[in-house]
Design a protein that fits this description.
Blueprint: H1 2-12, E1 20-24, H2 29-45, E2 48-55, H3 61-76, E3 80-85, H4 88-95, H5 99-118, E4 122-124, H6 129-141, E5 155-156, E6 159-160, H7 168-177, H8 194-209, H9 214-240, E7 247-249, H10 257-270, H11 278-290, E8 296-299, E9 303-308, E10 311-316, E11 325-327, E12 333-336, E13 341-349, E14 355-357, E15 365-368, E16 375-376, E17 385-386, H12 387-393, H13 398-401, E18 406-409, E19 412-416, E20 420-421, E21 430-437
Parallel strand pairs: 1-2, 1-4, 2-3, 4-6
Antiparallel strand pairs: 5-6, 7-10, 8-9, 9-10, 11-15, 12-13, 13-21, 14-21, 15-18, 16-17, 18-19, 19-20
Helix pairs in contact: 2-7, 4-5, 6-8, 6-9, 9-10, 10-11
Length: 438
């Protein structure tokens, strides 16, 4: 088993000389095996180890006993163990998630805080081949797409999984051969959790009635799928390079359906959507294929996908910007939070250059957003034009229209900031120069 772990570490480049590694130690067979194996390899690999145990406060005295075991086992190997108590049940209730998901979030946050505080390179977790098969089945059943069928990644950021190639039987054999005790979490046998149902009911039935080598076969298939996914993602990355401000031109999605899905998945992730289901991707795909400007669909966590002027946007459904208006005194800087810029007005000769407008020191200067009925006389065009029609003609996305600054002088629109001036306000002699400061 130790050679098998060595091979996994070497194959995936999980550990480098001098690494400081934090091991997630629950006290179960998997984490005990991982801790003991890395302890035996530490001189060979020239690494230094710490362990961390989080008490989920779900099982009373049993949870406290598991914590004591983790500390004592670590100390027996000369490894420092850091512990923390977290009320997983309260966290799950407050955040509207399952206790299983809450525990996972809290554990990884705890591990990462320790890693940073101790200046360590890696976090090692004890996921194994059986865990991988369970995850693949669960992902398949909830329709997570091809990435879900790749199973648990061997590495993810600072996280490494050195015993991912060991089966649970091999892990338990390792513990027996090395006279290692471990604890058994009673919740692992409770059928209220989806993973337990898959582990204790579904997989044994598949093994007994269909394929005794199911665990090995499904994890091997996951490796093949992962290789093909790498190829698809490399092609999709070239397209994703064209994404700007969560928006991509629909013409960039005129590619193979597999690449379309990967691009949409990337955009969903960028929007901060967790647990992305296949239906989200397919809904956005149908929207994009419709190409209908103004069409939109709702997505989780207050996000939307919408089509505007031949572009697909995925991100926050930004509320309409409320009306704003700022007075700009001469020789004063005024910060406009809605535009995220500072405006400065000064009196200069028109020949000085820059954005200079007809007016004087007594003129009332404001910057605001659009109002119903707004119009101006755009430079280079005949007659007057409604601001609404100008935005439509220039294909300004709806979400940006209320966040576009409008400069007025003595009550009349002089400039749609950054876009078009009003021809009535070209200066002769002295005038008002407007500077925009980021």
């Amino acid at each position: 088993m130790l050679n098998k772990i060595r091979n996994t570490i070497k194959k995936y480049g999980l550990i480098e000389k001098g690494d400081g590694i934090l091991i997630g130690l629950s006290g179960g067979a998997d984490s005990v095996c991982l801790t003991h194996a890395l302890y035996r390899l530490q001189d060979e690999l020239e690494i230094h180890l710490y362990t961390a145990h989080m008490n989920h406060c779900l099982r009373g005295d049993n949870a406290d006993a598991d914590e004591r075991f983790a500390v004592e086992f670590s100390e027996s190997l000369g490894i420092n163990c850091l512990t923390k108590h977290e009320s997983v049940r309260d966290y799950a209730r407050e955040n509207g998630m399952s206790e299983e998901m809450a525990g996972r979030e809290l554990r990884y946050a705890f591990f990462e805080r320790i890693r940073k505080s101790l200046g360590l390179n890696k976090i090692a977790t004890a996921h194994n081949k059986n865990d991988n098969a369970e995850t693949i089945l669960m992902n398949f059943m909830r329709g997570s797409g091809i990435s879900g069928l790749c199973g648990i990644p061997v590495t993810r950021g600072k996280i490494i999984r050195p015993i991912i190639d060991l089966s649970r039987d091999e892990i338990e054999n390792y513990c027996r051969e090395n006279n290692l005790e471990y604890v058994t979490d009673s919740t692992n046998s409770e059928m209220i959790y989806t993973r337990n149902k898959v582990r204790l009911d579904l997989i044994p039935k598949i093994q007994n009635e269909f394929n005794n080598n199911f665990i090995a076969n499904v994890t091997k298939n996951a490796e093949l799928i992962s290789d093909e996914l790498d190829f698809i993602e490399s092609a999709a990355d070239r397209i994703c390079g064209k994404i700007e401000e969560n928006t991509i031109a629909l013409k960039m999605l005129d590619v193979h359906i597999a690449l379309k899905r990967r691009v949409i998945l990337t955009m969903l992730r960028s929007a901060g959507i967790k647990d992305i289901e296949a239906e989200y991707i397919e809904s956005v795909l149908r929207l994009a294929e419709s190409g209908r400007s103004g069409a939109s669909i709702n997505l989780p966590n207050g996000n939307i996908a919408k089509i505007e002027y031949g572009k697909l946007y995925i991100g926050a459904d930004e509320d309409k910007t409320p009306p704003f208006e700022y007075t700009i005194p001469i020789n004063c800087e005024v910060y406009i939070k809605e535009l995220k810029l500072t405006v400065f007005a000064e009196i200069v000769d028109a020949s000085d250059g820059g954005e200079v407008f007809k007016g004087d020191a007594d003129s009332k200067i404001t910057v605001r957003n659009r109002r119903s009925g707004d119009f101006f006389y755009p430079a280079g065009m005949d007659g007057r034009k409604k601001i609404k029609d100008y935005f439509i003609d220039c294909k300004v996305p709806r979400a940006q229209r209320d966040r576009t600054g409008i400069l007025t002088i003595d009550g009349n629109i002089a400039w749609i900031i950054g876009r078009r001036r009003d021809k009535r306000f070209f200066p002769d002699g002295k005038g008002i120069r407007i500077k925009l400061l980021k």
